[in-house]
Amino acid sequence: NAGVTQTPKFRVLKTGQSMTLLCAQDMNHEYMYWYRQDPGMGLRLIHYSVGEGTTAKGEVPDGYNVSRLKKQNFLLGLESAAPSQTSVYFCASKDGGNTNYGYTFGSGTRLTVV
Amino acid sequence: AQSVTQLGSHVSVSEGALVLLRCNYSSSVPPYLFWYVQYPNQGLQLLLKYTSAATLVKGINGFEAEFKKSETSFHLTKPSAHMSDAAEYFCAVNAGGGNKLTFGTGTQLKVEL
Q1: Span B53-108, pLDDT tens digits
Q2: Distance from CA of A18 to the nearest CA of B (A)
Q3: Which of A3, A67, B13, B92 is deepest in the core (most CB within 10 A)?
């Protein structure tokens, strides 16, 4: 049981380049999330999805787009990367709307924009 | 609106000493509260959660936390620190049955011999 898998694990981009981060979960979870982690700022929610075909903005959505075409996958796109997007990105998933359920996190993608 | 404040971005304890990591929450409705641990270069792992049942919650690795409504706190404790406890710890809140967790800024725990 792999849980939540993120690819790639590391990436270096030049300013203005685009890329897509992939998150895949094999737990049949309804809810999926993208967070970014920056020193001293904890985790901040970028976008999330409450089901296949649905997405919503989080706390810091600017500069990112997402898609949830399949229930098990949640893609995070950067159309034109900026140095301010240098961060560690975490994907998480949750089973349904019950707040009792904790999140399952992936191991992260470390992105550097130069 | 919901938020959590973690007091102390870095905490250092001796091996065998008490661990106390502080978390205060702000919420207009009864909250659900969580503690997560992050080991170096890994994702976050759930330590424990408060979901309006018992106010004293026991988690993995000997950690526990007590929900105190009067103090709006959910501090994490462990009676005796071990070297393997060195990690970053995050408090998080979900209030009002919403779909989103709001995280604190984290506390880095260092355990010294």
Answers
A1: 788 999 999 999 999 999 999 999 999 999 999 999 999 998 766 678 889 999 99
A2: 24
A3: B92
